[in-house]
Amino acid sequence: MKNKYRWEIILICICIAGIWWLFNALRKTYVTEINYPISFTLDTTKVMAVEELPHEIVLEVTGSGWNLVRYIYARKSDPIEISLSNPLKTKFIGKKQLYQLATEKLSKLTVNKVITDKLSLHIKPKTGK
Questions:
Q1: In 3D, which of 95, 101, 94, 87 has the Cα closest to residue 38?
Q2: Residue 56 sits in a domain of what CATH number?
């Protein structure tokens, strides 16, 4: 009987130590790569994508452990909206524009750089049915 209580106390201490370690780890700042969703807005009645448009970009971000965990488990994050006003002339979207859009969207994380080189777009006009 006496031995059983010792194991329960040891197990409780290990759980408390694990929770303490987790909270301390989440207070620190981390640098990591994340895949962030993107979406395009264009007039599909006049143009069509010849190849599938990209769905996400890779970003290197810095943030506290809490904010990174919040991002990872809140996968319903709003995608970065890329509006193509002249889709026939837009052949690619570069890092600079992606960086600006990502910085505006991710307010609680600091975007260090965009890992994705560029987004190539292959859009043609619709000519018939």
A1: 101
A2: 2.170.120
Whether 11 maps to a domain, the answer reads no
**Residue 54 in domain:** yes
Q: Cα–Cα distance between 20 and 69 in angstroms, integer?
A: 17
Q: How confident is the model at residue 72 (pLDDT cuts 50, 70, 90)?
A: confident
> Would residue 69 count as lying in a domain?
yes
Q: What is the pTM of this model?
A: 0.77
